[in-house]
Specification:
The structure is a single chain. This protein has about 300 residues and is of the alpha/beta class. It has two domains: about 1-100, Alpha-Beta Plaits (2-Layer Sandwich); about 110-265, Rhodanese-like domain (Oxidized Rhodanese, domain 1). The chain is built from ten helices and 16 strands. The chain has helices at about 15-25, 50-60, 110-120, 130-135, 150-155, 180-190, 190-195, 215-230, 230-235, 245-250, and strands at about 1-5, 30-35, 40-45, 75, 95-100, 125, 145, 155-160, 170, 205-210, 240, 260, 265, 270, 295, 300-305. A five-stranded mixed sheet has the order 4-1-3-2-5, with helices on one face. It has a four-stranded parallel sheet with strand order 6-11-10-7. The longest helix has 16 residues, at about 215-230. The radius of gyration is 20 Å and the shape is globular. The chain starts with a strand and ends with a strand.
C-alpha cells in the first residue's frame, strides 16, 4: 500500500491525470489519485516492486520534472494488516480512479478566505522523534495538542500525554464529522487555541492527522486565524507531525509510542494497529471494527457497531 501527497503547482492537470492513469495501468496498481492545480494526493495498492517503480517514475520521469518530487515527497509504504477482521485479499483496492479535484484536501472555505489561508506558510514540520520528545519533555502548560481528524477516527485511536499535574491527558478532539467542519470549529474555539495568557511564553500548537496531508492546510488555517488576532508570535509556534500518525508508528514501532489504539486509514485496511480503545455505540463494550460499515441513517457517518 502506498500513500503520499505533494503540494506543487500543476499547470497541465489533464496531462498529469492521463499519465498517471497510464502508469498505474502499466504497473497494475489500483486505488485513488486526486490531481489539482495545487498538487496531488494518492493512495495505491499493488505488488511492492511495482510500487517502487511508480515512485521511481514519479521522481525521475521528465513529465513530473516541474513537481520537483525527488526528496520532497514522503512516500508511506504500508502492508496488509494481519490483525484486521478484513481478509487480506480484500485489503487491496479492486479498481483505479484518477480524477481532477479543486483542492488536494478541502476545508470548503469561500474563495476569498481560501486565498488568505494559502498565503500563510504551513506549520513547521516535526519528524516523529522530535514530535515524540516534545510531548514527553516540554512543559504541558506550553503545549496545545490538536487532532485534525474526524470523530469516527479519534474514537479508535489518539495521542495521550502527561499534563502538568502528572495525569494522563488526551489531544483536543474537535469531534468533526468531516474535514470541512474543522474551520468552523477553529473559529468557535479560537480562545482555546490561543491558550492561557498567564504563561510568559506563547503556547506551541502541535497538530497531527493520519498521513500529514490534512495538517498542511489545517495548520495554514490555524495560523491565519492567529495572525488575524494579532497573535504573531504564537502563529510562529504552530507545528505539524510530518507524515502523520502512520510515519510516527512506522518510526517508533509498536512499543514506546504515545499513540493509543489504531490509526484509521482511508483504504481497504480500514485501520492499522492492534490495541482496542473504541466502544460499541449500543452496548458500550470494547469494540473498534468499522468493517461492518454501520452508518447513521441521517448523516451517514461511520458508527462502531455490528
Amino acid at each position: 500500500m502506498l500513500l503520499y501527497y505533494h503540494y506543487a503547482p500543476i499547470e497541465d492537470v489533464t496531462g498529469i491525470i492521463q499519465h498517471q492513469q497510464n502508469l498505474c495501468e502499466k504497473l497494475q496498481l489500483k486505488g485513488r489519485i486526486r490531481v489539482a492545480f495545487e498538487g496531488i494526493n494518492g493512495c495505491l495498492s499493488g505488488a511492492i516492486d511495482d510500487i517502487h517503480q511508480y515512485i521511481d517514475a514519479f521522481e525521475n520521469d521528465p513529465v513530473y520534472a516541474s513537481l520537483n518530487a525527488k526528496g520532497n515527497v514522503h512516500w508511506k509504504i504500508g502492508y496488509p494488516n494481519t490483525d484486521s477482521s478484513v481478509p487480506l485479499q480484500r485489503q487491496q483496492f479492486d479498481k483505479l480512479s484518477v480524477k481532477m479535484t479543486k483542492e488536494v484536501v478541502s476545508l470548503n472555505l469561500p474563495s476569498e478566505e481560501m486565498e488568505i489561508v494559502k498565503s500563510v506558510a504551513p506549520g513547521i514540520h516535526l519528524q516523529p522523534i522530535d514530535f515524540h520528545k516534545m510531548l514527553q519533555n516540554e512543559s504541558q502548560d506550553e503545549i496545545i495538542l490538536l487532532d485534525v481528524r474526524n470523530v469516527y477516527e479519534t474514537q479508535i485511536g489518539h495521542f495521550d500525554y502527561h499534563n502538568s499535574e502528572g495525569a494522563v491527558d488526551s489531544a483536543i478532539d474537535p469531534c468533526t464529522r468531516s474535514y470541512a467542519d474543522f474551520a468552523a470549529w477553529c473559529k468557535r474555539n479560537i480562545e482555546r487555541l490561543k491558550g492561557d495568557k498567564s504563561n510568559a511564553k506563547p503556547k506551541k500548537i502541535l497538530m497531527y492527522c493520519t498521513g500529514g496531508v490534512r495538517c498542511e492546510r489545517a495548520s495554514q488555517y490555524v495560523k491565519s486565524l492567529l495572525l488575524a488576532e494579532n497573535e504573531t508570535e504564537m502563529a510562529g509556534n504552530v507545528f505539524q507531525l510530518y507524515g502523520g500518525i502512520q510515519n510516527y508508528m512506522d518510526t517508533l514501532g509498536a512499543n514506546g509510542t504515545l499513540f493509543r489504539g489504531k490509526n484509521f486509514v482511508y483504504d481497504n485496511r480500514i485501520a492499522v494497529g492492534s490495541e482496542v480503545i473504541g466502544s460499541c455505540v449500543v452496548c458500550a463494550g470494547s469494540f473498534d471494527d468499522y468493517s461492518h460499515q454501520i452508518r447513521c441513517t441521517k448523516c451517514r457517518m461511520l458508527l462502531l457497531g455490528n
